[in-house]
Amino acid sequence: DTAVSQTPKYLVTQMGNDKSIKCEQNLGHDTMYWYKQDSKKFLKIMFSYNNKELIINETVPNRFSPKSPDKAHLNLHINSLELGDSAVYFCASSQGGHAGRINSPLHFGNGTRLTVT
Amino acid sequence: AQSVTQLDSHVSVSEGTPVLLRCNYSSSYSPSLFWYVQHPNKGLQLLLKYTSAATLVKGINGFEAEFKKSETSFHLTKPSAHMSDAAEYFCVVRGGATNKLIFGTGTLLAVQP
Fold first, then answer.
1. Could you tell me what percentage of chain A is helix, strand and coil, using 3-state DSSP and rounding each to the nearest 5?
2. Which of A21-35, A96-110, B31-45 shows the lowest mean pLDDT across its residues?
3. Which residues on B lie below 8 Å from A105 (Cβ)?
4. How far, in Å, are A28, A73, A79, A102 from residue B93 at the CA level?
């Protein structure tokens, strides 16, 4: 009964490869996010989708492409992986939309640790 | 613009003693404030949230935080630390035109036996 689940948990790959991380939430939320946590634990938002529509796209290289087939899923595809992409990527969801309920907390997945060698 | 500052990157306490994790925020709007906890190799879990109701907010696992507008602070406290409280704690502010969550840099809490 995991609320926000993301796969895989660990991903080790070489530079130049293309990889995807999948995320699913069963909370009925209408907004989903991708966050990147660097080695110093700093969390930064990458993307946010509300009802399958992209509403936040931070300064992220266009090698990163999110895809939301429905409001319960938000996948992250990364092309031409670079060493600097190594990080932990967190998926999250909330209800009310990003411009909606200010007090709506985010529910996070357990993260995907990406290591690029 | 909004920001949040966690004043201590590391805090170490003995088991059974009080915990204080400090957070100051800056916001042009009436913010919502949250504390999240992250245990090793885990996602972030919501501890508590402030949303302009009561200024003293109680959360899970015995944690609470007090919103002090005059001091722009939202410090997290717990009367008695437990070994299982050892984790990274993040103070988060939300609000403004974009309604984005802004995370603090985290405070690593160590609990000594």
1. 5, 55, 45
2. A96-110
3. 34, 46, 49
4. 24, 26, 32, 10
pLDDT over 70 at A101, yes or no:
no
Complete DSSP assignment for B18-34? -EEE-EEEE-SS--EEE
Query: Cβ contact (<8 Å) for B32 and A110?
Result: no
On the question of pLDDT at A106 being above 70, the answer is yes
* Coil/strand/helix, residue B10: strand
Say yes or no for a CB contact (<8 Å) between B98 and A98: yes
The residue count for chain B: 113
Nearest one of A3, A6, A1, A14 to A74, comparing CA atoms: A6
Report chain B residues whose CB lies below 8 A from the CB of A95: none
A103 and B101 within 8 Å at the Cβ level: the answer is no
- Omega before residue B40 within 30° of 0, cis: no
Indicate if the pLDDT at residue A98 is higher than 60: no
Type of residue numbered B102: I
Structure tokens at A52: 């399958």
Which residues lie below 8 Å from residue B69, measured CB to CB, with a gap of 6+? none
